[in-house]
Structures are given as C-alpha cells and as structure tokens.
Amino acid sequence: MTDFPYDIVGFDLDGTLLDTSDELTASVNHTLGLMGHPPLTREQVKPMIGLGAKHMLKVGIEQTGAKGEEAEMLLKQYLPRLLDHYGAHLGSGSHPYPGLLDAMDALTERGVTLAVVTNKYESFAETLLSAVSLRDRFACVIGGDTMGKGKSKPHRAPIDEMIRRCGHKPGETRAAFIGDSIYDIMAAHNAGLPAIAVSFGFLHQPVEELGADAIIDHYDELIPTLERLATA
C-alpha cells in the first residue's frame, strides 16, 4: 500500500495505449485489394477502429462500393484474410502515444500495478504488446475473448478479472481504468471503477459524450487527474 490513491490502473489497448491505425489501415487495404476494391486513407479507417475487425471490414467494404447481400458475402469470405494479414504484421506500425511511457514509469514508481483490458483477441493483444516491447510492463492482458462470448467490454467481467489477476478482489481495491470508447467507460462504471477518457484515441463520438469521470489530452495529465479523481 502506498500514498497513491490507486493500487491498479487498467488501460484499453488500441487508441489508448497504442496508435495502431497504420497497421490496421494496411490490413484493411490489403483485404480490399484482394476483392478488387480501392484503398482507403488512414483518416477514413480510423473511425472504423475499436468495435472489432468484423465491423471495421464491413464498413470498409460498404465505403468502397458493395452493399446488402453482396457486402455480407464479401465480409464472410474475406474476414479470415484480414485477420491472417493483421496477425502476421502485428506491431509493424504501432507506437505508444506521447507521454505514455513516462506515465507508466511514474505509476510503477508509486507501486501501482498496470494491466490491459481490450476487446482485441487476447492472442493478438499479447503478440502486439510483445512486438512493441511493452508486454512485461503489465501484470495481465485480458482480451475480448478471454471471458467467453458476451463478456467483453462493456460487460464488467473483464474488469473484474483484471482486478483478480492483479492479486485483489473486485470491490475491495482501489482501481481505475483508462480508455477511448463508450465500451471502456461503461465497463469501468459497471465494475464500480472511475474511468478516464483519452481525447486522442479512436473516437466514435465527441469525447465529452462518453460519460467519463475525467478526460485527458496527453499522458502528462494522467497522474494529477487520478489524484484529483480520488479526492472528488
């Protein structure tokens, strides 16, 4: 136990810890190319990220010309090709957001245990974090498939599991969660944790509408924001 107000700080992955938009754009465009569809720009792909690979490819297919039954057929046929390409290139175009590493160092120095809860497949998350040399910084990595069907964020189950794997009991420890989507904020709140939203992530709506307890624009703000939340 330390004087810092939290024992555990959990993070979402894509759009929170890492900017993964370059490699996701590459995988989307690789798959669209196999269909004979034109490529999309990184800025077009970014709003598609965060709700799963199936959603991302579905929107990409629709934006490049296919609709209805044709789009569904292409999605079913080519989703495995997207996943294969992405799995083979994990970490090739991802990097931590500015200030993240310093913020993680500061939390670790204060005795805080760090963890990841993402809706990305657990195996992909493990591989990606290893590829960017960050896996060892986290006590656990919970993926969208870790807890079973229907128990990914916004369900509280992965947040509770994060707490257990960090050596504590849900509801009996001081923890907070950082994310960039409504699923992140809902999962944290469903588990009874304060939630901080990052304004630089893959937002599907204005960050002010996520319902977070606080918003940060840079990781330099994380430590003071956590301290302020604890006394609010």
Characterise the protein shown here.
With 232 residues, this protein is of the alpha/beta class. The model has no long low-confidence stretch (mean pLDDT 95). It contains nine helices and eight strands. It has a six-stranded parallel β-sheet, sandwiched between helices. The chain has a two-stranded antiparallel sheet with strand order 2-3. The longest helix is centred in the middle third of the chain and has 21 residues, at 68-88. It has helices at 21-35, 42-45, 53-63, 68-88, 100-109, 122-131, 157-165, 182-190, 222-231, and strands spanning 8-11, 18-19, 95-96, 113-117, 141-142, 175-179, 195-198, 214-216. The chain is elongated, with a radius of gyration of 18 Å. Strand 4, helix 6 (122-131) and strand 5 form a beta-alpha-beta unit.
Q: Mean pLDDT across all residues, rounded?
A: 95
Number of helices, where a helix is a run of at least 4 consecutive DSSP H or I residues = 9
* Beta-strand content estimate: 5-15%
Write the element-wise H/E pattern from the N-terminal end onward.
Answer: EEHHHHEHEHEHEHEEH
Structural class call reads: alpha/beta
Radius of gyration: 18 Å
Share of helical residues:
40-55%
- Overall 3D form: elongated
Report the strand count.
8
Strand order, main sheet: write it out. Answer: 5-4-1-6-7-8
Uncertain regions spanning at least 5 consecutive residues: none
Distance between the termini: 21 Å
Largest sheet: 6 strands, parallel
Question: What are its keywords?
Answer:
8 strands; two-stranded antiparallel ribbon; alpha/beta; single chain
